[in-house]
Amino acid sequence: MKPKLPLFFLLLTINTSLLTQSVLTSTIPQQFKQAPKFYNSPQCPNNSFNDDSDNDNNDNKNNKDVVCWNEAIHVAMTLDAAYIRGSMAAVVSILQHASCPQNVFFHFVASASADASALRAAVSASFPDLNFQIYPFRDSEVAGLISTSIRSALDCPLNYARSYLADLLPPCVSRVVYLDSDLVLVDDIAKLSGTPIPEDKVLAAPEYCNANFTSYFTPTLWSNPSLSLTFANRRACYFNTGVMVIDLDRWRADDYTKQIEEWMELQKRMRIYELGSLPPFLLVFAGNIAPVDHRWNQHGLGGDNFRGLCRALHPGPVSLLHWSGKGKPWARLDAGRPCPLDALWAPYDLLKPPFSFDS
Fold it and tell me: What is its EC number (predicted)?
């Protein structure tokens, strides 16, 4: 007669799959559904990495040929456990509305201290055919340059990763669309990626010249003649850094990362702004960017940085909805207190319901 297994080992055997799954949830608290597969339209340029007949496709999609393909559309986003639900929804929206979704390559930047294998497993599980790479960001080196701002979430070093894309991404990537994790697209990413950037500009973004530009800086900057002259001969306007098209070749040539860091170093000594990673970008680029139609950043849907109250859309057409501000749609939906526009984010949410089981 076979000896009976102790109860502990019996339970361990029964729950092997659940225990395996818990390794992922130890660093990523949510579980996500698999997204539908999105295919190129017949008019799209194709490369071998989109060929479903290649059995080794999944193992080779991050090689140099894929990243450096000149027809690829490059998108950069940050990736972490706290905002991964927003990132997943953003990716779904990009692929769903793209005319050539299989030609989009995602560059995810994650903290070097994060569990990159768990992040990779989560993305791969929801998007088995996604072309992507994860880049470690040494946030500890940037932390020393960061000053406290009006909202603690803005002080996360990963918020500053957008300043280092030219160093993190492969040199063959000459243009990238940077997107925050709290947005969804309802239009073709190729239109945004193809934004013309004149030779004397480095990036393109929607500008908002009716905003009170002076409010983004402290009186210390405006009362100092040498500092306020920074904006001389520039029609400096506010732009939101959550949606940008960046010419990485020009950025690298003039080392704009160093210029941003110099303003951050000055901020540590003189306190010339209050709002996280945005003001250094404004100091370097405001008044010297290529304009993008406002439809590509219907921003501020998360309310202000203090209360996160509901807001309506700006007048005009919409290609991208952006929940910048304190309120995030997933948090308000979970709390049962959604804003009306949060219903436009919900269809892209891949979060599995609690206690759901895969068939």
Answer: 2.4.1.-
